[in-house]
Amino acid sequence: MKAKSVIKLGAVALASTFVLAACGSKSSSSSSDKSVNFMESSEIPTMDTSKVTDVVGMTQLSNSEEGIYRLGKNSSVHNALATKTKESKDGKTWTFTLRKNAKWSNGDPVTAQDFVYSWQRTVNPKTASEYAYLFSGIKNADKIAANKVNYKQLGIKADGKYKLTVTLDRPIPYFKLLMGFCIFFPQDQKVVEKYGSKYGTASNKLVYDGPYKQVGWTGTNLKWKLVKNPEYWNKKNVKMDTLNYQVVKDTSTALNLYNSKKLDVTTITGDQVAQYKNNKNYVLRKEASTFYLQLNEKKDKYFKNKKIRQAISMAIDRKQLTGKVLADGSQNPLGYVSTGLAKNPKTGQDFAKEAEVKPAVTQNLTQAKKLLKEGLKEEGMSNLKFTLMADDTDAGKSTNEFLQSQIEKLGSNVKVTVQNIPFKTRLSDSSDGKFDAVVTGWGADFSDPISFLQLFVTGNAQNNGDWSNKQYDKLIKASNTTDATNPDKRWSDLVQAEKVLMNDQAIVPLYQQANSQLWSSKVKGVIYNTAGNNFDYSKLYIKK
Fold it and tell me: What is the mean pLDDT of the chain?
């Protein structure tokens, strides 16, 4: 999923932090209070299951909606709407028996047809879902994406109200993990059709089948709530009545709110980390997310030149970026796929370490200047000028300024203009190709390297820079098809793909995100998954 900002706080079932509060409301320290105050660093772009791409929206959906499974600690799989699962011997047919007591917040029953409708809507080319690629492997999904088959031919069908059958073109090694991801959640067709293009654009423009339902979000405001859903099938085990959210982009303001007990959780950075790292309420979480520069090869043809891309990467001192600019526990990346996400099934070695290409993430200013000179000459250029886009958070601004100063060390003929815009706008501009270079981030949606690597297949909706490499495409395809059921071969495919990506400097990795946070000692029971950067609040409670 798309990380919410350069100060990303955690997120979904795939998604990340939800720290927000209702400023001016009474302190939540009362023992009888069943509310918690969180902050978010960015606005919600959308709550449409078929169109969401970012950590903020996915965090909200993962706590207000529910699918076949819920993902527990360390990505363990637990029944949610499913009560029974049957897998065929060849791994291509999955049959789910659904619970009969699940309802939407409007009282409608949740049925197998809700899954059929939701999945078909997402893969329908007219929906333009940026996550439709995750359906690859489900029967006819690839043909639907290529406009060769009607979207209603997707391999999913309802056998009555409470039995769902999914047919695959090939076994998907991570299929169960997908079934806990919000893109695969059901949707109430009646409600989607009622609101049309406005579906998912405000709290009252959708319905909920999860532990909480959202209220108070108008589509543009900076405060909202998640309140206990009285129609949720497992409501007796949801202990909190209200989760208050407020967007706070300034970390100093957020810390003041935390210290005045108007926030129960806050993210801290820089000097704040140094001040509070020994505090009993300090928590450091390494995330399965990588921030990187994406260069627009379609808009700016000079970025097609590998030497220019390498020069930009080699100009950056990542140790200074993580240690002095961010100073939040984030670490230097080994590549694109984050450390700690997956291990070699035979040797146990971390994927990121095995696939590491050191020159792609190491500063070498002398070599960078040489490469830039050669690259510009090959392009018939004497100067390099481009705009660097990032979020308008404090960390987004400081990161952008740092990168500007680093890249301009390449020479007097290099000019970088910085542009900081709201997260929601940055996402839409990136998707529309309205950028030269952009600081962006990706968090794993599930604990498999493919969650990162699929993004840069030619034509992928998330591949906003339009990079393309035939060898890379071939390796990813093999991992999903001929080698899908051979763990060793599949692993090798993915390792080699990462090396191709980095050797060609398709992107410029900047850092692996970590979160330094302060959590009120009274807040207990939250389940956090590194893969997906997901906070599940369904078991949250207040310690008396």
Answer: 92
Cα angle 441-70-178, degrees, rounded to a multiple of 5: 55
Question: Which value, in Å, is the radius of gyration of the alpha carbons in the chain?
Answer: 23
pLDDT reading at 257 higher than 60: yes
State the DSSP string of 59-85. HHHHHH---SEEE-GGG-EEESSEEEE
State mean pLDDT over 169-175. Answer: 94
First vs last C-alpha separation in the chain: 36
**Are 301 and 540 contacting, i.e. CB atoms less than 8 angstroms apart?**
no
382 phi, psi to nearest 5 deg: -115, -20
Average pLDDT over residues 456-469: 95
Query: Average pLDDT of 407-432?
Result: 95
* Closest by Cα among 227, 282, 247 to 36: 227
Cα angle at 239 between 234 and 243, to 5 degrees?
110
Better-predicted residue by pLDDT, 461 or 28:
461
Q: Count CB neighbours of 423 within 10 A.
A: 30
pLDDT (average), residues 301-305: 98
Burial 373-400, CB ≥16 within 10 A → b, else e? eebbeebeeeebebebbbbbbbbbbbbb
Helix (H), strand (E) at residue 502: helix 487-503
**Furthest C-alpha separation in the chain:** 70
d(CA 341, CA 14): 13
Among 169, 61, 62, 163, smallest CA distance to 113 is for: 163
Q: What is the pLDDT of residues 312-322, one digit of tens each?
A: 999 999 999 99
In the chain, the amino acid numbered 350 is: D
Q: Scan for tokens 């079934």, then name that residue.
A: 179
